[in-house]
Amino acid sequence: YSSFLLNIANSGAEVLINVNFGNDAVGSIKQAKQFGILDKMALVMPYLSPFLSKEVGADLMQGVYGTTEFWWTLGETNPMAKTFVDTFNAKYGYKPEWAAHVAYMQVGLWADAVEHAKTFYPGDVIASYESGRTIQTDLGPVKWRAADHQLIRPVVVTRGKKPSAMKTPDDYYDIVALVPGEGLMQAPDAF
Asked: What pLDDT is recorded for position 50?
């Protein structure tokens, strides 16, 4: 990443938006620190992978803004999220992150559609999804957009905690906002 990071370091920018994912995110953040970029620019990660903080470390992630599918501290304010987090933690011995939540939400939303349709018949289940009903979830209200079958859901915005503020070893982030999904979605014909 050195050629990119040299240009970034000399750009005069105040914010580095790192769109890398997975191991590329880990490597590029560590190199950005080595180049002194993180000492003079705020880091924003548009999508935080679940293992990023563990791989990069809390020291580098403190103050970093990002978005994620789910963060377990939603259970502190949302009773449905609390049930999910507590049940998951009791069974597996760790806090759920986005992959576990995606599976949980997919099954839950499918079950809701089947129950609403009163059948497993795929055409009727699809019509149930397309009905525009608002469904209460552990993220808040969600609904399916009929035109392209996209789920309109809140986006979790986080900020990395200082290591001294972490209550447990996996307490990396504060949730700073749950942004309603409606205004974030591109129009169905945008593509």
From this structure: 76
pTM score, two decimals? 0.90
Non-local CB neighbours of 106 within 8 Å, separated by 6+ positions: none
Report, in angstroms and rounded to the nearest whole number, the Rg of the chain calculated over CA atoms: 19
Cα–Cα distance between 174 and 176 in angstroms, integer? 6
Q: Of 144, 139, 13, 159, which is closest to residue 78 (Cα–Cα)?
A: 139
* Per-position b or e across 94-117, b if 16+ CB within 10 A of its CB: ebbbbebbeebbeeebeebbeebb
The whole-angstrom separation of Cα 82 and Cα 74 is 7
In this prediction, residues 27-43 reach a mean pLDDT of 94
Helix (H, G, I), strand (E, B) or coil at 168: coil
- As to burial, measured by CB atoms within 10 angstroms (0-12 exposed, 13-18 middle, 19+ buried), residue 169 is exposed
Closest CA to 5 of 45, 35, 27: 35
Distance from the Cα of residue 79 to its chain's centroid: 19
Phi, psi of 18 (to 5 degrees): -100, 110
Dist CA 159 CA 67 (whole Å): 9
Closest of 93, 55, 88 to residue 70, by C-alpha = 88
